[in-house]
Design brief:
Layout (H helix, E strand, L loop, with lengths): L1 H6 L8 E3 L8 H4 L8 H7 L3 E3 L2 H6 L7 E4 L6 H10 L3 E4 L7 H7 L1
Length: 108
């Protein structure tokens, strides 16, 4: 859902995609196609690199990123958001940001 919108912006470059699953069924929908798309193909479509985990992406000094869009399961929003913030990245978290007030404070 976010990739097609971000991919058509002149002020945005999709540098990397992160997903631990090589052929997740939802990525066909996210890419605007009804066909299931592998992460390799999705990364290729957006001229980006595929990482299986966010920590590996954040540790890769060859991949320069300014921000992270967190579109994971709700239970992972805080963990991935905090990890990205600690790495000095701007963060956009899909709603709900979190279901817990303490986690929301941690992200603030």
């Amino acid at each position: 859902m976010h990739l097609p919108n971000l991919g058509c912006r002149d002020d945005c470059v999709i540098t990397a995609v992160v997903d631990p699953i090589e052929v997740p069924g939802v990525h066909g929908l996210l890419s605007g196609s009804k066909d299931v798309m592998s992460m390799d193909k999705l990364a290729e479509k957006y001229n980006s690199k595929w990482y299986k985990t966010l920590d590996v992406l954040l540790a890769d000094k060859s991949c320069e990123i300014d921000g992270v869009v967190v579109c994971s399961q709700h239970a992972l929003h805080t963990e991935l958001g905090v990890m990205s913030l600690k790495a000095g990245k701007h963060v956009l978290i899909d709603k709900p940001m979190t279901a817990d007030i303490d986690q929301a404070i941690e992200l603030a």
